[in-house]
Amino acid sequence: MAKVIFGAWDNNVIDNRRKKVFEIEEHPEFSDFDEFNPGNPIKAFFGGHGFFIFEKNVNLLDAALQYMERVATESCGKCTPCRVGTQIIKSKLEALTSGQGTPDMLDEIESIAEHVRTTSLCGLGQTATVSLLEMLKFFREELEAEIAKAEPVARQHCTTYVSAPCIEACPSKVDVPRYIDYIKDGKFTHSLGVILQKYPMAATCGRVCVRFCEMACRRTQVDEAVGIKVLKRFVADHEQDMTNEWFSSYMIPEKKDPDLKVAVIGTGPAGIAAAYHLLLRGYPVDVYEAKSVPGGMAATGIPEYRLPNSVLNKEISIIETMGGQIFYNRKMGRDFTVKSLFSNGYKSIFLAIGTHKGKMMRAAGEDPNLDGYDFGVDFLLRINHDYIDKGIPMKLGEKMVVVGGGNVAMDCVRSALRMGVKEVHLVYRRSRREMPADHEEVEAAEKEGVIFHFLTHPTKILSEDGKVKGVGLIEMALGEPDESGRRSVTPVDGSDFVLETDHVIPAIGQQVELGFVTPDEDGVAFNSWGTIKVRDDSLMSTRKGVFAGGDCVTGPATLVQAMAQGEQGARCIDDYLTYGRVRFFPKDRMSQLVADVQPMIASGVNIPVKHEYRVKVRELDPDVRKQIFEEVEKPISVEEAYHEAHRCMRCYRVYSVITEQ
């Protein structure tokens, strides 16, 4: 565990300069600050709220200069204090590190730095000089001692990193403020380009993303989060024709050796993202899909009223436009194996098979073969591909019970209403507050007429002549929080009751459908959770050259999390095929360090911000939409996009570390 010699963070000072190392108190926040990468100690850390010095031989003037160099580069130039002030500070620090200048220059730097902090118009300028100001306020004598030497300072090893709370919350690390900046400037094509640097499914994500970025948005400390997802959909829809012009096999600047073929298994978000980034790197890519249609869980588990198939299919078609091939109705374990893929010349494999098998409730009398029993993922698949695509009728009865509290459960109940089920009940064993589903999905289901039963748990399935007739339920009581912070639930004695129904849908989770690999023969191992065992840093499985990502590794997660793993898998495969190993990635390490210091950051927005509530997305009337599968949410206008984009406070933060090498 790294020990802080001195530093300050949000005006909280740590000063151990006169103590011996063994006397310095350890802080758990710095348990991961010993090394930047193996054999490379972290000597200092700087951020938008302060700085920490871990070794006595750090030169503060050079550290401050390298930090301010990055700040000056990142300044957008739209307000004078940040644009001009950061450049002046940088030039004065350059003079001091070259051995020229006097301690009086520190007063000038402090004055300008304070002006930048208090008058800049965005989060970058408002935090850019905080670490420098805290250095000047609490440890000026250290700077003066360095200046007194009047000699040039040797350049230290420094890594800088620019991010924002929304970027760090996004699994794909999409540069949200940048694509919003382009919307402010009316450069919608540029905005889409920022998103496409991370994944090809911009319009898809703009419709169904769970919005980790908005949960982290600092605008919530003023009024409401910026409508980041809405803006993503806006630019994706507005510029939808641009993708046809941009993506082709000719756009790839340098193609790899044709022998370096990569096989991607699965056309879900993880597989498509992996194929996309591999193609961008010039690799020949073949994608294998077990079904007759692409999309994985995005196509199987997300109803048409949330994500039209036409939108998803168009974005997946980018893979073939770029020169990749997709082979349908080719199932791993049935039509080919890991061994046969390698025998056919593939140099690496990325497994992105998803979690398409439903989980049973373990209720008495539960039998998947009962007429009127469907797993949530199978139910949605039948609706999407049998009823909607092929027009095959489905008999669902007049009353349905769906068990679960996630987005799949919400999709099931809302889809059931659209299929003509007159009475739809949702059973969830915990309280409404603890439901993992998107709160907007829960509210939409309520508006459409779904009947909720919170703190209720299924105990048995009642059937007659092989057909579901009812569900036995019991009320639950919340207990004390467990180690994860989640409250336990226990049955309430004597609270049993029966809910008659024609159909029951367990939507309590999915799991990997085993049989696609043989651990002994293929060398791909599974962990105790039934998912593929991989190394966190590389996503390589226990079989050399075989990588995996998405739900088959993490368990059921979100579309954006799967795409992030697809991008990581492509990067690691590129390293593996180029260098024979997966390299250290400094940006990932910086992101870890930023996450470690987040609990130390004081909340609140220091600069006054005018209250402006987010744009309201138009929706179909609940009485109308529950009868059809037409997309519920409507796109915003150009004027609304401009308004929403200007609500962004551009909360960029600059971070840097000084290391040994």
UniProtKB/TrEMBL annotation:
Pfam families reported in the protein's UniProt record: Fer4_20, NADH_4Fe-4S, Pyr_redox_2
Domain NADH-ubiquinone oxidoreductase 51kDa subunit iron-sulphur binding: 61-106
InterPro entries hit by this protein: DPD_II, FAD/NAD-bd_sf, FAD/NAD-binding_dom, NADH-UbQ_OxRdtase_51kDa_CS, Nuop51_4Fe4S-bd, Nuop51_4Fe4S-bd_sf
PROSITE patterns for this protein: COMPLEX1_51K_2 (PS00645)
Molecular function terms from GO: 4 iron, 4 sulfur cluster binding; FMN binding; NADH dehydrogenase (ubiquinone) activity; oxidoreductase activity
Superkingdom per UniProt: Bacteria
UniProt name for this protein: Oxidoreductase
Source organism per UniProt: Desulfonema ishimotonii
